[in-house]
Specification:
The chain is of the alpha/beta class and 320 residues long. It contains 10 helices and 10 strands. It has one domain: TIM Barrel (Alpha-Beta Barrel). It has an 8-stranded parallel β-barrel, surrounded by 5 helices. A two-stranded antiparallel ribbon has the order 1-2. The two termini are 35 Å apart. The protein binds NADP nicotinamide-adenine-dinucleotide phosphate.
Length: 320
């Protein structure tokens, strides 16, 4: 496992992070057995993963609770990232949300506390001041943002220093490369990538656009450019067969090579997925494979607009 530094901190995280959204047992990924989630967390730990991402919004705290239970006495070995929901960004709500997450995680300090989505009704300076207060009080070790576009990230950088911007980024969704990634690179804000497997499409589990389950086909690469997306999937499949490595590992390794990326948050719901995804951190792709995948995904990037919101198009975009 390779480890990398988060932003300007001295926090070292595994290049592959364990995403726990499916452990909510609700929403996009459907039901999940808690015991299987606990085993998945243990398999990730055993494979060298020290970075875990959750959110108070995942199953109304359920994913966070399961993660806290699974970590148990191994808490000291890991970096816990969680997120505060956009409706909790004013002072009393933010402090209460932090306390709730600490309790669910069974810890006294959150390593990385992220603002899940911007709330344009609350000036970010107010939120940043509370986050700093929490940091100085030892409740959190560092803070970051998620889903912050060019304008929001610039506002955050005026208010303080977010250590990360957690963004949707994969071979099927490279839109962050247009504007956000260069700002992150210039300001030592680590990019941590969510949905790096395009919610499973890049693992090869769906052969055709019609096979993608409805909850997952809401993503705009499916709705607006399914054929071009499956062209990328097919190229990835061919490259994976030639290299003799799983598609998921190629997709994650390609992403880990992009400028500014510190870690990829792969959703994991079984011990097998945890072990396989963790292996991607040690996969060094030959430069011609990197080029092949970059070239294969370029027509898709060109066909999509520049709105990074993976689900909401046009004026409904939550990015600014
Ligand atoms: N900040 C945000 O707004 C935001 C939004 C979304 C996600 N996230 C974070 O990012 C994490 C990952 O995103 P994601 O779950 O949307 O998408 P993802 O990582 O792209 O895909 C996860 C899905 O891919 C499948 N999978 C994973 N590894 C596999 C493997 N080795 N072999 C076969 N299938 C595999 C599983 O599907 P099956 O269910 O079919 O097994 C899993 O549910 C989340 O858990 C969460 O922590 C953050």
């Amino acid at each position: 496992m390779r480890y990398r530094k988060l932003g300007k901190t001295d926090i070292q995280v595994s290049a592959v992070c364990c995403g726990t959204m499916a452990m909510a047992s609700a929403g996009t990924f459907g039901e999940q057995d808690d015991e299987l989630s606990v085993q998945t967390v243990h398999a990730a730990l055993d494979a060298g993963v020290n970075f875990f991402d959750t959110a108070e919004g995942y199953g109304d705290g359920h994913s966070t609770e399961v993660l806290g239970r699974a970590l148990g006495d191994r808490r000291g070995q890991v970096v816990i990232a969680t997120k505060v929901s956009r409706q909790h960004l004013a002072e009393p709500d933010l402090i209460q949300a932090c306390e709730n997450s600490l309790r669910r995680l069974r810890t006294d300090c959150i390593d990385l506390y992220q603002v899940h989505w911007p709330n344009h009704n609350i000036p970010f300076g107010e939120t940043a001041a509370v986050l700093e207060k929490l940091r100085q009080g030892g409740k959190i070790r560092s803070w970051g943002v998620s889903n912050f576009g060019r304008a929001d990230l610039s506002e955050a950088l005026e208010a303080g220093h977010p250590e990360v911007d957690q963004l949707p980024y994969s071979l099927l969704w490279r839109i962050v490369e247009h504007e956000i990634a260069p700002i992150c690179v210039a300001n030592e804000v680590s990019i941590i990538c969510y949905s790096p497997l395009a919610q499973g499409l890049l693992t090869g589990k769906f052969a055709r656009p019609e096979d993608v389950p409805p909850e997952r086909s809401r993503a705009r690469y499916c709705k607006e450019a399914a054929d071009l997306s499956f062209h990328v999937v097919n190229e990835l499949r061919a490259a994976s067969e030639e290299l003799g490595q799983p598609m998921a590992d190629l997709a994650l390794a390609w992403l880990l090579d992009r400028p500014g990326v510190a870690s990829v948050i792969a959703g994991m719901r079984t011990p097998e997925q945890a072990r396989e995804n963790a292996r991607a951190a040690d996969l060094e792709l030959p430069p011609e494979v990197v080029d092949r995948l970059t070239t294969a995904s370029q027509p898709l990037l060109d066909a999509l607009d520049t709105n990074p919101d993976m689900w909401q198009a046009g004026e409904n975009s939550r990015y600014r």
